[in-house]
Amino acid sequence: MIDFFNNNCKENIRTDEEFGICDNQDGTKAYSAKNNSENWIAIVKNSNQKEIIFTAIDNCIQVYKQGTRDLESSCDGMLSFEDSLYLVELKKQGTGGWLPKAIRQLQNTIALIIKNNDISDIKYKKAFACNKKHPYFQVIESERKKRFYDTTGFRIDAQNEIVVK
User: Are 34 and 16 in contact (CB under 8 A)?
Assistant: First the structure.
């Protein structure tokens, strides 16, 4: 069993009204940051200053495909607070296929979390595909959103602004 909630990849609690999630995309893990906004791929808006924990997943929590030494594909990280869990996939891609790949990574990570952790007490579950080169809302057709929700229990958005409510 892999505990996605209690591990060495979990950062300290943040209560900043705004901070970023960064990924240097060099094989190191994603991280949150208050400064150097030019490195932010996703922007977290936390106007109520809730206690949020960012946990890196990709390049930190290692899950191997069953019976192999190959790593599972996973999203970059997750934000957890109160009764909420937000998964985040970070991209810095121009055109072409970034959104379907991000969605697959988010779906796979959700399956891994559900397989290894009980998240039935978590009320609000969202997944975010964030792309620094396409920061504004990308249309995910309602059929795909519904299918994603039906198979994962998570709502999905494609934008780089994550509003904590």
Answer: yes
Q: For CA atoms 44, 47, 48, 49, give the dihedral sign.
A: positive
Tell me the per-residue pLDDT of 114-146, one tens digit each, with 9 for 90 and over.
999 999 999 999 999 999 887 666 677 888 899
- Cβ pair 134, 161 in contact under 8 A: no
Q: Which residue has the tokens 């891609």?
A: 93
Beta-strand (E) ranges in the chain? 18-22, 31-33, 42-45, 53-56, 77-81, 84-91, 124-131, 155-158, 161-163
Q: 0.90 cut: is pTM over it?
A: yes
β 31-33/18-22 pair status: antiparallel
DSSP conformation class of 105 = H
* Separation of alpha carbons 143 and 146, rounded Å: 5
Query: Domain coordinates of the chain in residue numbers?
Result: 18-163
